[in-house]
Amino acid sequence: MNTEVVSDLNVSRPIRVGILGFGGLGQAAARLLMPKREMVLVAIADKGGYVYTDEGLDGTSCITAYQTHGSVGYVESVGKLCDNSIVELITKTNSLVDGYFFALPNLPNDFIASVTKQFMAAGWQGVLVDAIKRTSAVEQLLGLQSELQDRGITYLTGCGATPGLLTAAAAIAAQSFAEIHRVAIRFGVGIANWEAYRATIREDIAHMPGYNVATAQAMSDAEVAALLDKTNGILTLENMEHADDIMLELAGICPRDRVTVGGVVDTRNPKKPLSTNVQVTGRTFEGKISTHTFTLGDETSMAANVCGPAFGYLKAGVNLHRRGMNGIYTAAEVMPQFVH
Ligand code: NAD
After folding, report:
1. Which CA distances in Å does 179 have to 243, 258, 275, 312?
2. Of all atoms in ligand 1, which is nearest to the CA of residue 46?
3. Does the CB atom of residue 203 touch ligand 1 within 6 A?
4. Deepest of 145, 174, 190, 247, by most Cβ within 10 A of its Cβ?
């Protein structure tokens, strides 16, 4: 099959993409986009500023500016330093950006929902994609359904690895069964140092016994480092509040209490401590009980498994948007498209 032709039918011109948040995932997203022809990175915002160019950003200089000075606002001649970077970026560029990937911390737990409200207040129209994790955070976004629809925004939520890739895989695996008994997600993450993914690690700590989102957000970097010293850099997480449950329930796969998520994060070694997998157990129409297992390759990083799906869903979102399909969708009800 000629994939070039199929792809051109789907997308008539490169999709102009923005990234909000330029830490671990944001920078990985910029690197992932560099060789793509169907998407061009035109805008980035972080806490200290933003950068926009019509013709497309040089990802490498954005990463250098961020790593050297702490903000893309320092990118030579085009960067802008400011306190309210997201609102300023949306207001200045408006329809010049087709879709944004939120690589932002969801700290506090309503941060992404509040940013979404800023997009709506600015009258912006287009596609928004998040890699949000908590069930309660997805519930807040689902509550914006009719407003998003009225305002011409197509929002895809839970589009990282888990929730995201693994949730979508579970929805597909479920099709072999007449009834789903259990969906069990277990992830292994290996990163060389926690500072590269501060929000991810703080949000993971918030799932540990004795912690919550507010206490994890309030921890200083030194306190996080001290906690990791005590655990030898390992975070073991069980029964996490993860939106895979509500997404699979909404997709009609199974009640949310049949979905469990846990994992192990090694913050001192890029090698995964275990192979990330999702197991879907059910009963077939013939009465057989069986389990499908989908396992990610150990060499694939967290960044590859989050950012790849996020942009696949962004492309799918653009196609929905062009067909007038606005409102909110989850990663378990829309198929991501491959970005060339
Ligand atoms: P990070 O801490 O490395 O970077 C966060 C970035 O956001 C920084 O660039 C910071 O400047 C920017 N930022 C913070 N507040 C801002 C504001 N008010 N305005 C503009 N920019 C702001 O984050 P990370 O570790 O890359 O994680 C990003 C998110 O991805 C987290 O919420 C994490 O939970 C999520 N995540 C999801 C999955 C998944 O599979 N679904 C996996 C990993 C991470």
Report:
1. 21, 11, 26, 29
2. 21
3. yes
4. 247
Ligand 1 site, residue 160, Cβ cutoff 6 A: yes
| pLDDT tens string 189-247 | 999 999 999 999 999 999 999 999 999 999 999 999 999 999 999 999 999 999 999 99
Give the helix ranges, DSSP H, for 206-300.
213-218, 221-230, 244-250
> How many angstroms does the Cα of residue 52 sit away from the middle of ligand 1?
19
- Sketch the domain layout of the chain as residue ranges: 3-160+303-330, 165-298
Which residues are annotated as catalytic?
133, 203, 207
Q: How far is the CA of 203 from the centre of ligand 1 (A)?
A: 10
Rg (CA), the chain: 20
Residue 79 Cβ < 6 Å to ligand 1:
no
Q: What class has domain 3-160+303-330?
A: alpha beta
Band of residue 2 on the pLDDT scale cut at 50, 70, 90:
very low
Cα(281) to ligand 1 centroid in Å equals 33
Indicate if ligand 1 lies below 6 Å from the C-beta of 198: yes
Look up residue 166 and give its two tokens.
Answer: 């693994």
pTM of the model: 0.96
| Dihedral angle computed from the Cα positions of residues 22, 27, 29 and 32, in that order, rounded to the nearest 10 degrees | 160
Q: Do 270 and 192 touch, CB atoms closer than 8 A?
A: yes
